[in-house]
Amino acid sequence: MDTPLTIAGRTFRSRLIVGTGKYPTAEVMVAAHDASGAEMVTVAVRRVQLPGRPVDESQQAIIEYIDTDRYMLLPNTAGCYTADDAIRTARLGREAGLSEWVKLEVIGDERTLFPDNAALVEATAVLVKEGFIVLPYTNDDPVTCRKLEDAGAAAVMPLGAPIGSGLGIQNPNNIRIIREFASVPVIVDAGVGTASDATLAMELGVDGVLMNTGIAGAEDPVAMATAMKLAVDAGRLAWCAGRIPRKLYATASSPLEGVIGT
Q: pLDDT-derived band of residue 93, with 50, 70 and 90 as boundaries?
């Protein structure tokens, strides 16, 4: 029997986490969130109106369209390229009343948006000591994921493929290894392009999937959100059910008894 997703003592019925960027309109975003069944929504701290900054109505509108009684906000440090910037951004988000949870991003390369793993481990250790619940976005490297867990990460979030690429899970074996050795939840973050990608991620045994562009960039974001919800549920159910072993040769599914000529 399956158990709910639990991160830092908080339980979630849905294993799908969604974002807030790239939607054609705020109304479409709201409808897609509803269709996804998600309970956690991530938003960039830099897109939120913070104390001491000039009022930007486009930034403030993001929060106004999210029902915080229904969805838990997961602030993220998107756009940060150093550990110091990510740490300061996380602090700003908490001071603004967003959350003590943070999806930690420290980008190491502007073109690929791959993370800077050394800076990520450094920032994780600092923020954990300050009482943050840290969910770091990292690459699909089991060693880095172990270091992040040792630094106090409440979950690890290896990428499936570069952010926004829609390439799907490029290194399933590494994801499987990460899941095998991690003692915290593993959530695939980035690269999911369609429902089959989300299903594969869950069939690898991960605990959840975070996506934004795969839904927001679809021709019909609301329909895709529904598809992603079903895909995550199906993949999780398949993982729990236990797939049959892969074999090179066929195995008859019907018994030989009663076959004419035997």
A: very high
